[in-house]
Amino acid sequence: MGQAVNFARELEQVTDYWSPRVVGRVNDQYVKVAKLKGELVWHKHDAEDELFYIVKGRLVIQYEDKAVTLNQGDFHVVPKGVMHNPVAEEECWIALIETVTTAHTGDVVTERTKSLEDQLGGSGVTTI
Ligand code: NI
User: Fold this and answer.
1) What structural domains does the chain harbor?
2) Prediction pTM value
3) pLDDT one-digit tens code per residue, 1-20
4) Hey, how many other C-beta atoms are within 10 angstroms of the C-beta on 113?
């Protein structure tokens, strides 16, 4: 049986921005934590929704026709196939729920893009 996992405690160990870390798995979804600052990149995930939950700070999800502001305790689901860009003016701590097949920056690759292996590093969580 698993242990209790605490989002804030997991995030205290994260040193790099925009580098999601897998901390659990629920069926075909990974539970991840990440520290964000600045913006990622415009992208979409053709086949997967992704859930953002704010542990600390504020995150704006930019869409082409609007922006959604998320504060501590809020969550938001980015629908599959929709262009989006997460922006954190100040450091923001988040949890993510993403299908195991979800690529970090969706349909684009940048120097910021983290592979699934990067995200799984040392977690002990099983791969696909
Ligand atoms: Ni995304």
Assistant:
1) 7-127 (2.60.120.10)
2) 0.90
3) 578 999 999 999 999 999 99
4) 16
